[in-house]
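Record copied across here:
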Amino acid sequence: MKQNSTTILVPVIPEKVQDLLDQLVEIKRNSQEGISKEFDSLSIIHYARWVVIDHGKSWIDDEQKRNPKLLFVIDYDGEEGEMLHKVSENSSTILDLVYVFCENYPPLNTVTTASRKAYLESHVIKDAAVYIGAPGRSVLQIRKEKKLRDFIRDFVDSRTWEDVSPETVHKKIKDQVLSNPEFAYLKGERVRMPRINYFGVVLLGVCLLALLPFILVLVLIVHFFYERKDENFTKKRSQLDDEFLTDLEKYEDFKNQNQFTQLVDMKEGTIRLIAIKFMFLLSNFLIKFIFTQGKLMGIPTIHFAKWVMFEKNSRVLFFSNFDGSWQQYLGDFIDNSGWGLTGIFSNTKVFPKTNFLITGGAYKEEYFLAWSRNSELVTNFWYTAYPDLSIKNVNNNTRIRVQLMKTLSKRRAAKFLKLL
């Protein structure tokens, strides 16, 4: 099943901002006690978050007066319209608790599934680039494959397998699984791991070669006419606001997974807009053709990530759902895809100094980590459908399922057993 992501941006009634923040705190508190069941019961939402922006705590010296807004970000299975209908119908209580503080939400005594859906649809904003770490895996599939792996693991651990060949172990596991009615779906539902689209890779390479003169000219213009004049971010972590850092850290490390929300302003000028749009276009092609197997530029910890441009392309949002700690996550990005981060965020205001669009920037690790914290937002509510699974677990569980249903040689059966 295809996965999608939707971003909804709604204006908040200014005098109701604190009420909304308090409500989200209460919802977050309750969700930790298992009351996120409204999203759980849908069985189509991988991740969801609410983030209040422009309500006072703004990023790098943003003096522009802005009206408060509420972001709703959903990563899910299926089509947008069907998802919004299910959310509006089955998660009506939590929606009403939140959106009653937003402008033009239907009165609670008249609101219906249709009017909730229409309200949310009218505030959808377009994504610029979306990455999915386990493409094609629905929430239900991920949960079923976790149960399958746990069942196999328990069976393997229940006895000794000394002097039993790998292919025999594999066959006995398969027989045991298929004798259990809970796994009868394995006989009818065939799945396969996503593959690299080599034709697409070649086509992309040809296009980049054809565009090389344009790319070189763009990079030179950016460097000589813009980067030399840019205001750069030169703060270190010790120079950031301790109170705000504490607020951010309160919303981290509750589970094996974490979230990251970031908001930055674009630098002025058509050239900068062309540069970032080109980087987003390149990212989308790389994601579609190459990064299909659980790694984004070599980073094996990201479940869903995306960039969004809004307010007439003057601002950029970045959202990520990932495994491990914040420090480890950003470190992986620097080590494996610093050029990509720099190519995108060097077009936003007050970024660490860059040269030729993709060098410097994120590679100035001390400044980049401080910049990332300084432009991060508190995520007021965050939901994950499978908090104890890493993206490596999700992909390995699918590999286990695929390999289980095959007849394997000794060598391949030994590899299968290592996946357990």
In short: Residues 142-186+401-419 form one domain. The first helix runs from residue 17 to 35.
